[in-house]
Design a protein that fits this description.
The chain is α/β, with parallel strands linked by helices. The protein contains 9 helices and 6 strands. The protein has one domain (about 50-220): 3-Layer(aba) Sandwich (Rossmann fold), CATH 3.40.50.
Amino acid sequence: MSAVRRWGGVSAAFSFALEVAAAALAPPRCTACDAPVGLLKAFCVSCASTVVPAAPNPTDGRAAFAYGGAMARAIVRLKYEHRPDLARPLGDLLWRALEPMRRAWADAVVVPVPLHPSRLAARGFNQSVLLARRVAWGLQAPLWALALRRLHDTPRQATLDRQARVANVASTFAARRAERLRGRRVLLVDDVRTTGATLEACEQALRAAGAVHVGWAVVAQAEVDAHTAV
């Protein structure tokens, strides 16, 4: 057994012990309705029945679930009801969805979609950073939380159609230290993808900095016309 495998096994066992200890102090709750749930469960049975896996995406990306039902409710609570604690179970669902592709991202760095400083100050946290932290932990990949920065505080994408979304985020992102990204493979992480305009704009900034490959992973894929609270 390799050192990496031994480390991974010990890490998994230690992590599970921590989850058990944490559950003893704060019993896990459904991310959508706060009903009690079992250890390592994100949704209660009722809410889980409304959670649907996302359809396969032809691009180099992975959405774990469709945006709707309890999944939509959980993401809204995370972002707009000041529930950063929900990023942990949702992030774990995302990295587990990526588990079959672990080898493909073995040498990649995980980069979250950034918020503008003014929006970060208002919200108090960047949900994409919290999700990316869990993804990086699960995939045992480096997390570069500040690799990208948002240059403009643009209107929320949910209020715009496809053409306006693309224009809204054009030239909005830039790499902080381009030399660090040169020649790297990057996995972008965000909470929701609708048209993909934000992720495409981030990819352009990463490629301009010299990244050789950029993929993406999101918790949920929304329909193009499903604008509510995305």
